Amino acid sequence: MGVLSVILPAYNEELMVGKACRVLREILNNAGISYELVLVDDGSTDNTWEEIQKAGESDQNVMGVHFSRNFGKESAIFAGLAQAAGDVAAVMDCDLQHPPEKLLEMYRLWENGYEVIEGVKQSRGKESLIHKKSAGFFYNIMSRATGVDMQNASDFKMMDRRAVDSILSMPERNMFFRATSGWVGFKTAYVKFEVQEREAGESKWSSWSLVKYAFTNIVAFTTLPLQFVTLGGVVCLLLSLLLAVYSVVQYFAGHAVEGYTTILIMLLFIGSAVMMSLGIIGYYISKIYEEVKRRPRYIISQIMRGKEDISSQANQDVQ
Ligand code: UDP
Ligand code: MG
């Protein structure tokens, strides 16, 4: 028997926090699993924090972590993992789109010796076409880069203490949790689940934030785009060799090449290729800059266990 920590990142989820706690409590109590719920309020602007405190009043197993502002879901997950005291930790959305019953299945797999249990989406739930296509494109690149099928990967996972500790020991600030849990290795099992529909509140993802998320995570996880730059250079070189041969042949055949248009097109083409490459390299440099600043991943303004404020004793150190 091990204690299960369930980590629930919450951003503007006042309508769902209470319900998520009730549902989880009931399921885990019925299954006789000892647990703690770590709710991380990612700088919500609504009453999420009040709701978390309310949930803690009646339940000593509820822990609330309050961020000083919105740091994003990855940071919230990381903070939850850092505070979790259990032998095994699960991460799930607090809007109950990840079916809580699946926790039991994951827990049994953990008891049978699996150290990382990944939730795999069986269907993507209801999403707009643009959303689906852009997510598909992003995961395609990620799958190629990581060599792991990311198409149906999710943030719904359970991890043994050892896997949690190895994730916590990673120094990078920009972490792509979904792929990192696979990267650390360990004995892994997969559990399929259906994405449920959101009952209340709304999705925090606009199409634009998805694009940003995709770029950030591609850069955080792989250097593949830098190889595109090299590849582009090689293609340009081959083309210019062809053109050189053609021009020399033309020259000796007695007619000089018609110059102006060719030069104009080439200049524009190469100019834009160089600028795009610089952009890609620049993006990596900006990310390196963010990493070397060593800013904390998040700032905690308050931590509660049950109804007790433990901000002063809790481990706030985020290296
Ligand atoms: N979330 C968060 N910080 C953010 C955005 C979202 O902690 O900046 C949480 C949110 O409260 C939810 C989970 O991440 O528990 C998934 O968010 P959402 O339901 O909006 O995403 P979707 O399910 O639409 O992909
Ligand atoms: Mg959701």
Task: Please give a handful of descriptors for the protein shown.
single chain, 319 residues, alpha/beta, 9-stranded mixed β-sheet, 10 helices, 9 strands, 17% strand, elongated, binds uridine-5'-diphosphate, binds magnesium ion
Quaternary assembly: single chain
The largest sheet, given as strand count, sense and whether it forms a barrel, is:
9 strands, mixed
Instruction: Give the number of DSSP strands.
Output: 9
> What is the mean pLDDT?
85
Distinct helical segment count = 10
- Considering DSSP H and I runs of 4 or more, what fraction of the residues is helical? 40-55%
Give the overall silhouette.
elongated
The hetero molecules present are: uridine-5'-diphosphate, magnesium ion
Distance between the termini: 31 Å
Give an overview of the whole structure.
The protein has a 9-stranded mixed beta sheet, with helices on both faces. It is α/β, with parallel strands linked by helices. Helix content is 49%, strand content 17%. The protein contains 10 helices and 9 strands. Bound molecules: uridine-5'-diphosphate and magnesium ion.
Briefly characterize the structure.
This protein has helices at 17-30, 48-57, 73-83, 102-111, 129-146, 161-168, 177-183, 207-221, 224-252, 260-292, and strands spanning 4-10, 35-41, 62-67, 88-91, 116-123, 153-160, 188-194, 300-305, 308-309.
